[in-house]
Amino acid sequence: MKKWSYLLSGVLIGAVVATASSAFADQIKSLVGEKVAGEYSVKVNGNSLSENAIVVDGKAHVPLRAVTDSLGANLKLDGKTIQISTDSSTDTKTTSLSETDGVIKTEGQYAGWSIVKLEQRKSDLEKYISESENSKEKLNHELEIADKLSKTSVSSSTLAIRESNVAKTKKELDSIESAIAKYKTELEEINKAIASLK
User: Fold this and answer.
1) Sign of torsion over alpha carbons 22, 27, 33, 35
2) Strand 47-48 relative to strand 43-44: parallel, antiparallel, unpaired?
3) Residue 159 half-sphere exposure, CB side, CA atoms within 13 Å?
4) Where are the beta strands (DSSP E) in the chain?
5) Is 101 left (phi over 0), alpha (psi -120 to 50) or beta?
6) What values do phi and psi take at 166, rounded to 5?
7) Which of 124, 107, 116 is nearest to 71 (CA)?
8) What is the pLDDT of residues 80-124, one digit of tens each?
């Protein structure tokens, strides 16, 4: 009799756990494993971004870092929260301040920026450059491995897949190199703007 009660208890507990876990899984919407249905080029204020938007499950997903960089906004990842700030209210307040208050009075992209905002942007750019350099290094390593594998004999379908992957990796590498060049150019401008305040 006890064996039957244990068996029945086990079945009931299993049913409750299975029902609860499937209900929990239904609440979580993830794009992991979803198929990319297409790509869009992205333009911000008429300038094309180096990265494309992708279409997954009927929705376009844009490269957030590239968009915020092109708009001069600050992007911060805080746990599982992405925070974006433009500090536009600070810009309008500081444009009327004098040079002694640490605000650039000259014309150009950084006119009206405070030294604090310039230093923050400089820090962000240095971080982006570092991350991009790391990504570039990893992609170069992947290309080296692919080059070594290309010297082995494989079927024509496997070879075609490898060549396709190498082409994608080279395209991504070009995109990263372009982003690094853009970040370095902006970093030079930021450094000049900071130097003009000191």
Assistant:
1) positive
2) antiparallel
3) 7
4) 36-40, 43-44, 47-48, 53-56, 59-61, 74-78, 81-85
5) alpha
6) -65, -40
7) 124
8) 777 787 765 444 333 333 344 455 554 567 777 788 888 999 999
List pLDDT tens digits, range 12-61: 566 555 555 554 455 445 666 678 777 878 777 666 766 787 777 777 77
pTM exceeding 0.85 = no
Whether the Cβ atoms of residue 165 and residue 139 lie closer than 8 Å to each other: no
Q: Which long-range contacts (CB under 8 A, 24 or more apart) does 103-106 make?
A: 103/197, 104/193, 104/196, 104/197, 106/196
Among residues 197, 6, 38, the alpha carbon closest in space to that of 118 is found at: 197
